[in-house]
Every structure is written in structure tokens, then in C-alpha cells.
Amino acid sequence: MESPWDELTLAFSRTSMFPFFDIAHYLVSLMAMKRQPGAVTVAWKNPFSSWFTAMLHCFGGGILSCILLAEPPVRFLANNTNILLASSIWYIIFFCPCDLVCQAYSFLPVQLLAAGMKEVTRTWKIVGGVTHANSYYKNGWIVMIAIGWARGAGGTIITNFEQLIKGTWKPEADEWLKMSYPSKVTLLGSVMFTFQHTKHLAISKHNLMFFYTVFLVATKITMMLTETSTVSFAPFEDALGRMLFGCHQRFSPRVKKNETKSNGTGSSTSKPTADASDKLKKKHSKKTE
Amino acid sequence: MESPWDELTLAFSRTSMFPFFDIAHYLVSLMAMKRQPGAVTVAWKNPFSSWFTAMLHCFGGGILSCILLAEPPVRFLANNTNILLASSIWYIIFFCPCDLVCQAYSFLPVQLLAAGMKEVTRTWKIVGGVTHANSYYKNGWIVMIAIGWARGAGGTIITNFEQLIKGTWKPEADEWLKMSYPSKVTLLGSVMFTFQHTKHLAISKHNLMFFYTVFLVATKITMMLTETSTVSFAPFEDALGRMLFGCHQRFSPRVKKNETKSNGTGSSTSKPTADASDKLKKKHSKKTE
Amino acid sequence: MESPWDELTLAFSRTSMFPFFDIAHYLVSLMAMKRQPGAVTVAWKNPFSSWFTAMLHCFGGGILSCILLAEPPVRFLANNTNILLASSIWYIIFFCPCDLVCQAYSFLPVQLLAAGMKEVTRTWKIVGGVTHANSYYKNGWIVMIAIGWARGAGGTIITNFEQLIKGTWKPEADEWLKMSYPSKVTLLGSVMFTFQHTKHLAISKHNLMFFYTVFLVATKITMMLTETSTVSFAPFEDALGRMLFGCHQRFSPRVKKNETKSNGTGSSTSKPTADASDKLKKKHSKKTE
User: Nearest C-alpha of chain A: how many angstroms from C247?
Assistant: First the structure.
């Protein structure tokens, strides 16, 4: 006999992402794509290339997960309904007369709603990835974490790679020292869901899905309202780092130049400067995962 | 009771590409590879590296199709006969005493014959790709178009990627705004054969193969005789673009600088200049797909 | 009734690589990784990124082999024991107090022992790759050579690719003219084991494994003691080159500039200069495969 709470979380975990949550995910991803320099010009000059990039933005996580598990990367193209939905949203975002969709999207409540719904899909992707990996490797908890993470936040890798191939993006060496907030939070979720799946975490899947989703949505909305691009994990990361790696450890991204310039002085003095420059960098490069 | 016409087209569709059409395809691809700067030097200094690049030129479309369908990319190496044939042609092109093969190839009738036969193989590759994709995804018409296209014209992606890895090619951002002629014509063929396969096009496969091949060969030979690198689809593209995307749409590649310089003036004034610069660029970069 | 010699080589061929030989392989690979510029800084700033790179260094050959055979590239993550072992070695190399491991590794006998044991694993990897490819393609001897080679020396491709993506490595065009010593020697081994597998070489597998391993270990130790980075195959390569490709052929890597500067004079005059500059380059870029 399930409690009302259990029934609520169970019903929540059985919600289908199609069509509304998927629409929100495509909308947010494609609005982020549209804000990239040159995206509109490409859409006018070569709609096919723009459409292809749009599909990578919408389905990138699933594509990466397929590549890692040696499944056909084109499999997402077989789901005609979702492709049609994503293509329609791409079309009306880029070609709607008078830019109506973008004007509507400029209202904060619309952005908050869409972003919140997108975060819900992140949970579903992580869970789907973990479950799918488990069907391949029964006790492969590292694989499960990797695939859950790839599905939840791997889209950026695919889109960055496409830009690298196209010559519109050149990776900076220290970009890889910084793990973005969506990346960290997805990794955390993937670890939790994997340990729940392997019965190392004493919580039911639907309850974990509920709590994790609430956490995601709450932090996302908070970040949008306060105009910060990240919730700082720095205290936890520093503590974990010191515990595992000793006092040299900095998890939080520090600009390499500052470290070099300070010439071995303690991190604390360089911290405010690095934080400020980090915040500036993050404001300028709003990538939505 | 089939008509003589049906018998003709049926017999045509059952022609085996091995060995003569395959030889033509390898010959044209490897002569194009030889014309790339530094290719001969590489062949002398590191024949293995040159041979590997040659195999990518000859089998690139199939490799890309395998990657997209999560089949072993090395599968082409299992076909010992074709590998031996392609390797022999690579060998005699690069190491034949007194460059006999290249001298023979410099005669226009030889080039026309080889190029025409190569275009025939394009049809077979598209059809093979569409059929193969259909065995994976029964109603996945987008997948079928993608795989047909990859097999027919995907080789350039593989060879460009190899050059990118080797550091001998850096993609220019606006290269992706331009779809090459072989790319466009292969996409068109892939769409037609997919719709024929899904019974949306009321024409038999062997008839479509015949007509499409005749179109390919005729346009290719015309382009070689008139020394243009493309048959202009611009009127159709512009019409299609206006219908789907409104009056902003330009399918035809325009040099980005001209668009910026003209500062919002109509495209027509910048068109002659862009066309001329396009022609110059295309003459210098003759890539054969 | 087997002779004592057969029993010896048979017992040798049945030796398990786990755990001691695997430890040696991880140790040598990760010490080479640590010597790369910036590796220690990355480990302190983003241990996760450093750990990921470490796993690519340890399992790169297997990953490449999986990619080529369309098997899940994440499969190596399912082997929890080996991952744990490699991760432990990474941890103690980068975070051991007072750098004890590195100090111990700085003794030449330790380096010789570890390098020798690592070369033993190369044989096992080649044999494993050839056998595995044969299960896919019964008579595909080219595939078998390719997979044996990928497993034995393919790790560098994976790690270079990762650095390319990260922007910490840019390929030079003429790097691909030079095949590194481990690459050449692995290709040789892969060819021999393939021909042994297809019964074209009249020697038993365990005998060939023994002789090839002795050759690898002996040449590796000789190179380390004499501080050269390669055993010169140049005489054999030149002879093979002349036989197959005529008198233009140079297999040995020559700096392109010298060839250009010497303006068509015989290779012999430029050879000492090229050799000296090669030796300088190789001393500076000690990559262990």
C-alpha cells in the first residue's frame, strides 16, 4: 500500500517527456544556438547546415551515448516524430516573421518555465543512460556513470566537435581545466543514479528522480533570477580535493596566468581576481547544456 | 512481359561495378589525390602513409557509412580483391616509370570516359546505401537519405578529416556555407531513391537508376568540356529558398565579405563579383568526389 | 611429446599479463604522461581531466581497436579491476607525498625492468588483436594486421587526438612522414603474427611470441642504455624501398627542409645533417608507446 508521497513521486517518474518537456528542451537549446555569433547568417545562407547543427544541439547527448556504446549515431534520425518536432521549432525560431518566437522568449517567465522543463529532461536522460548502459554491462558502474553523464550533458562535446571540424571554434588549452556547471551537476546525478541502480544508495529510483529534479530546477531558476552562471560547489570541491589530493588541490577553475603570476603565493590572494575574471568569462559565454 | 525498354534498364541496373567501373572510380580519385600539393613527396618519403590516404580516397564513402551505422570502419579492408585493385592503381599512378599512367590520363577522351564511369558508381553507391539503411530502420527515411548521401559523396568528409588530423588542412569557417556540386547532386539522388524505395515516387528502381545515371554522366561530361566546376542549381535553389524560408534566403554560396561590404544592399549587385570569385576559387580547388 | 624448449615457450605464452606486466605498462605510460608539459598542473587543477587522460594513455590501444571494430569504446571501463589498478598507479604517481614513486623510477634498473615488462605486454596485445580480428573476418589478413597494430601501438593516436581536441597539440604536416620506432616494430610484429595465424609462416605461435618478445625487450633495453630513441631500420627500409618503389624511395624520415634546400642533390650528402637533427628532435620528444 503506497503512501500518497510514493504515489506522487511514482506518477512524476512516469511522466512522458514527449511532447511538452521535449519542446522546452529544443526551444532552450535552439535559442542558445541562435545567440551564437553568425548562426542567423548561416541559417539564411545554408539552411541545411543550420538544420544539421540544430539537430546536434537537440540530440547531441544521445548521439554521444550511441558513439560510446557503438550504436548507430544516426539512430536519432529514425525517430521521425521527434525530428519533425525539433525541425519545426528550429524553423519557427530562425524564420518566423517578425521574430515572434524570440520576442516571446525574451520574457523572463517564459525563459524560466522553459529552462525548468529542460532541467526535468536532464534527469530523464541520465536515468535512461544509466539503465541502458546497465543492459550492456551488468556490473559496469563506471560505464553506467559515463553513459548517464554523456546523455545528460554530452551534447556540448558533440556541438563543440562540429564547430572544431567547421573551423569556427578553436579549443583553448585551459578550457578543459574548467568543468561547466551543467557538466558537474550531471556527473553528480549520474553517480547517484548509478549507485541507486546498484543498490548502494538506499532510496527508490522515483524518489531520487523527484529530489534530483527539484534540486536541478531550483538551482537553475535561482541562477537565472540572480544572473549567475553557476552555483558554487567550491567549498565541497575544495574539501573533497584536500581529502583526496592533499593541500595542492584546486578543483575550482583558476586562470592559469594568475597562478603563474602569483609565483607560488597562496591561492587565497589570487582568488578574488580569478573569481571576478571567471564571472566575466562566464557571462560572455553562456552555453546552455 | 517486359518491354525492351524495361529489359534495357533492368540489365543496366544489374551491371556489376567490378572491375571496370571500380577501376575508373579508383583512377579518378587517385589522380585527384596526386594533384594535391605534396602528395608525390609523401608517396616517396612514406609510401605507407600515401597508401593509407589513397585507401581513404577510394573507400571513404563506405567508411563514413559504416561509422554512421556503427559497423566496423575497417570492413573495407576485408574485401581483399578491391583493396588489391585500388592498391595496384595507386602504385602505378605514383611509381610508374616515366609517369606513363598520368600521361595517358592527360588525354581528354580518357578523362571523360573515366569520369563518366565514376559517376555510374555514384548511383550504385547511393542505391546500396539506401537499401542497406532500410535493413536497419524500416521506416527511417531520413536515415536512408543520410546513408545514401554518405556513401555517394561522403568520401570528402573522411579525407578532409584525415588532413585535419595530419595538420595539412585547416577548415575555413565559410567553407561549410558552400555545398559542393557532387554533394548537392548526391543528396538529390539520395532523396529520390529513398522516396522511390518508400513507394512515394511512382517509378521503378531500375528506371530511376538509368535516368539518374544518364543525368549524372551528361552533366559531368558537359562540365568537363565547358571547364566549369558546377552546374548551377541557383534558380531552383533560390525558388525553393524563397518558398520555404522567405526572401532572405540565399542557397547559392556568396562570399561573406561581399555581403558584409555591400552593407545590406540587395544581393543582385554583389552577385557578379561573388560569382567571379567563386569561379576562381573552384578552379583552384578541384576536388573530385 | 613436447621438448623442454617447447614447454618453455608454451609456458611463456600462457603467462598472464595481470597484474605485474600490466602494472609495468601503466607505470611507464603514466610516467611518460607526467613528463609532458603541464601534466602536473592539470592533475592539481582538474584531477578528473588528468585521470581521464591517464586512462587514455593506459588503454588507448584497446580503445582504438574497439573503434575500428565498432565495439563500444567504453568497454575498457567495464573491467573494474584493471581500471582500479591503473587509477591507483596514476594516483600515487601524481599525488604521492615527496614524489616517492618518481624518485624510485629515476633509478635506471627500475626503468629498464619496467620498460622490458611493458614490451612483453606489446606482444600480448598484438596477438590478442590479431586473434580478435580473425573472429570477425576469417580471411581478412589486412584487418588482422590493422587491429594487431592498433592494439599494440595505437594508443598514441588516441592520446594525440585527445590533445588535438583540447587544443594542447597541433599536428605538424611532416610528423606523418615519420613513423616512430614503436609503430614500425609493432607493424612488423602484427604482420608476422598475422601470417603465422594464416599458416603462411611456418612457426608455432608460442615460439614466435617468445622470439618477438626477446627481440622487443633486447632492442628496448639497448636503446635505453645507449640513449638512442630508435634502432635504425634504415638499411632494410632503403633496400625494401628501392625494390618496391625505385631509387626515389626514402623510407627513413628526412626533414623536408633539407630535401628542399639540397635542391635535388643525392640523399647521402644531406643524410648526416638530417640524422643529427632527427636525433635532437627525438631526444626532446620522448614519447613512450
Answer: 39
